[in-house]
Write a structure and sequence with these properties.
Pfam families: ECH_1. By secondary structure, the chain is of the alpha/beta class. The chain is built from eleven helices and ten strands.
């Protein structure tokens, strides 16, 4: 299974990207499956908090599976992509924590920034390489400037340059560095599961993210138009 989920103690849902042989790059099946997992997490009252991580030593997520897109001659629909990102289409009023390590590229960064809290290994390597393949990251183009400002978002997304975990921490893109981000994320999830088990906490998250969610919904057609106009799909740089 490309996406695995498991409910552990204190209502923590562990969600893993499970294609380590592909650096956890997300194919169409993975994106559809993620959307299903977010729906389950949103609706099941036993789920109090969520931890997202990547299996294997090399990557959290190296982005979309460009090889599959080349073979199919297309990328996934905007609707499938939107549903694969937590909280974009439908609010999830439970804390979502991303544990990042290794290659965190393109859609991997997009997944992370649509979580609520990001814990990264100090040697995590970030970038938005889509620009080098004639592609774009439509949802991140809306969300990233809200987190780190327009100027820095333009720099990262138009150049596709690599950036470090320490830079990400200084910009507020990452909340915490840890040598064992998964362990730290689970520990935080346990704490949050206890501390925010109330309707007030859920509504607080809802209100904090309300403007971002409205923006994403408002510009959904623009994102779809931009993605549709980009037709080039080329092999990724590894």
């Amino acid at each position: 299974m490309t996406i695995h989920h498991e409910l552990i103690g204190e209502g923590i849902l562990l969600v893993s990207l499970n294609r380590p042989e592909k650096l956890n790059a997300l194919d169409e099946e993975s994106k559809i499956r993620l959307g299903e997992v977010w729906d389950y997490a949103r609706l099941d009252n036993k789920v109090k908090s969520i931890v997202l991580y990547g299996k294997g030593d090399r990557a959290f997520c190296a982005g979309s599976d460009i090889k599959q897109a080349n073979e199919q001659g297309r990328t996934v629909t905007t609707d499938i992509l939107a549903r694969s990102l937590p909280g974009v289409m439908i609010p999830i009023n439970k804390p979502i924590i991303a544990a990042l390590h290794g290659y965190t590229l393109g859609l991997g960064v997009s997944l992370a920034i649509h979580c609520d809290y990001r814990i990264a290994h100090p040697e995590t390597q970030f970038s938005f390489p889509e620009i080098h393949h004639g592609l774009l990251s439509g949802f991140s183009a809306i969300t990233l400037p809200l987190l780190i400002g327009e100027s820095r978002a333009l720099d990262l997304m138009l150049t596709g340059r690599k950036f470090t975990a320490q830079e990400s921490l200084s910009w507020g893109l990452v909340n915490q560095l840890s040598e064992n981000p998964l362990y730290s994320a689970i520990a935080l999830a346990k704490q949050l599961s206890t501390e925010i088990a109330s309707k007030a906490a859920g509504w607080t998250k809802h209100l904090i993210l309300l403007n971002r969610r409205k923006l994403l919904t408002h510009y959904l057609e623009e994102i779809d138009m931009a993605r549709s106009s980009v037709t080039k799909v080329s092999a990724p740089h590894q």
